[in-house]
What we know:
Elements: H1 2-19, E1 27-29, E2 52-54, H2 61-66, E3 73-75, E4 82-84, H3 86-107, E5 114-118, H4 128-132, H5 136-151, E6 155-158, H6 205-208, E7 212-215, E8 219-226, E9 231-237, H7 243-246, E10 251-256, E11 264-268, E12 272-277, E13 281-287, E14 294-302
Parallel strand pairs: 1-2, 5-6
Antiparallel strand pairs: 3-4, 7-10, 8-9, 9-14, 10-13, 11-14, 12-13
Helix pairs in contact: 3-5
Amino acid sequence: MYGRDCYVPFAARFAERIRSILPHILLFVEMPPLEFSIDEFPEIDDALIPRAVNATHWYDGVTLFLRAWRPYFTVDPRTKCPAFGYAAVRRTHMKQLAGIKGYGSEQMNNAPTLIGETGIPFNMHSGKAFRSGGFSAQVGALDNTISCLEASLVSFTLWCYTSDNCNGYGDQWNLEDLSLISMDKPIRSGAQLSVPERDSCGRAVHAFARPYATRIAGTPSKSEFNLDRVRYELEFFSDPAKSNEVAMHPTEIFVPQLQYPRGYTVEISDGHFSVQSHDGWDIVSYLHDPSKVNHCVGKLASFGGG
């Protein structure tokens, strides 16, 4: 099989050469897109590629290749089974991500998973948004992608920047157009009017400028943002054996003010929090009660419904 007989020996030799110069680094390991492969993900022994990270890419293939957002339809690329309805689409995407995480835990000796590349095409629906300024389809598609990643509690690198992106040629390769910013600024209409002028090159900003935890003094069990309700919630648990030590380190949540123009409320299960305001964003700093194990912080809700 290609993965076992070709890719793994190559990756091992490559890793060995890199580590001859940088011996302590983590190495991202990613197979060719599995939806195009007839082979299963190979087993990668930790002794062969030590400190490897499962960096498999993930996209909603239907949205990527059709360049259209259909929240009620997708296809599982591995099983070729269609999914109809919003809930079924979300389940399909979550199942795909669970499978990718399984590669790291089951076939890479419990290696961590970081989605090495993800995003959406901005030139969907024949570039209609470029002419109208209405990026609702792009916001919906990107929010779905990020929400699935959040709910899966998986780290990811969002395709974010191509310096010479333009509406006509996208990212300057094969008409791919995944950059979050563009030299051709979106027309300022609708939701785009609330985006500060300095950020006006951004596209679908409301989908990616969202609250998230930058530091967690424990192990997360939930970290999700509901864009429709403009509500963020973080749940995590702390190790009782290290509770006093860990409780000295704050959990920090990044909060873009774009989402909360009228301000927001914060609810916590225990402990106390403070807010540090910056130019366009806040940091909610939370110190949990060391006598508790399960913690909930966030439930950030906008004043006046957003």
